[in-house]
Write a structure and sequence with these properties.
It is built from 14 helices and no strands. It is an all-alpha fold.
């Protein structure tokens, strides 16, 4: 049965994607819930692909917001490839940390594509992941507070290749709807002793290759399915996601400069429990 997507639905999904992509509350989980509430079949190939395609808006927002810093890191990386002396620049190490950290999620995401687009698209998975990963974020914040009291936190000038690898491996858990890519990467950064603002920026940088690869792969792999939804609806969803994601990035960076991630933990647990309750009582179907 063909899947129809209205412009109103496209706008709603674009808003949900843009607002939740960079907050540690799981964009995939929220999109899955929104798709259910909008009456869309969440396991349909076209809907699954659309979820990845509208992330392009969030990617562009990241590029534009961090344009100068991305250019700086890229040039430092190029200089480091040509000059041994340039490899002492911390921007060169930071660039490599982002590159290395982006590889694991690509490998795991490609290998488990069928599972991610199928069985994991259950609201039971979303509810469980929202609650369970909240414990990880809470632990990461406790670790951050302990290190802050001792003055042992690190900034971006001390980021290492191992930091990138560890954060990249943890990022693989974000393939589970409800975990949250930013929730996974920021938590890993905090546990590694990186200060909250730097960990958040690292999360943004690692989002670029991960989301770009996912969006392009889905665009090529499911083009015939996506055409059913309509090019206009896709463009509207991407545009709305861009605007809301840009605002979300700016807000989150200001927020983490003076606040912990614990308010998001309260929200995640509350949403997970409400969702589980709705599933138990039959108010909403899991798939």
């Amino acid at each position: 049965m063909p899947v129809e997507l209205s412009y109103v639905q496209a706008v709603i999904l674009g808003i949900v994607e843009g607002l939740t992509e960079f907050l540690p509350i799981s964009s995939t989980g929220h999109l899955t819930i929104a798709e259910h509430l909008l009456g869309l079949p969440v396991d349909a190939p076209a809907v699954t692909a659309y979820t990845a395609i509208i992330q392009i808006g969030a990617i562009v927002a990241t590029f534009i917001y961090f344009a100068r810093k991305i250019a700086r890191l890229f040039m430092a990386w190029v200089r480091g490839l040509r000059s041994e002396a340039a490899r002492a620049d911390h921007d060169y190490r930071l660039a490599w940390a982002v590159i290395v950290g982006s590889i694991p999620v690509g490998i795991v995401g490609f290998a488990l594509k069928g599972v991610i687009a199928g069985p994991l698209r259950s609201l039971w998975v979303v509810a469980g992941a929202l609650v369970l990963w909240s414990a990880v974020i809470w632990f990461a914040e406790a670790r951050h507070d302990a290190l802050e009291r001792r003055g042992d936190q690190r900034g971006e000038d001390s980021i290492t290749l191992m930091d990138g690898l560890v954060i990249g491996v943890v990022q693989c858990f974000s393939l589970i709807p409800g975990v949250s890519r930013s929730g996974a990467t920021i938590s890993a950064g905090l546990v590694r002793g990186i200060n909250r603002v730097t960990a958040t920026e690292l999360s943004f940088f690692m989002a670029i290759p991960a989301l770009t690869a996912a969006g392009l792969f889905e665009l090529v792999d499911t083009w015939d399915d996506l055409k059913i939804l309509g090019a206009g609806q896709m463009l509207v969803g991407i545009a709305v996601a861009f605007v809301t994601a840009y605002a979300s990035i700016a807000w989150l960076l200001r927020f983490v400069a003076t606040n912990s991630l614990r308010p998001f933990v309260y929200y995640r647990v509350a949403l997970g429990l409400v969702l589980a309750g709705a599933l138990v009582t039959g108010l909403i179907a899991a798939t």
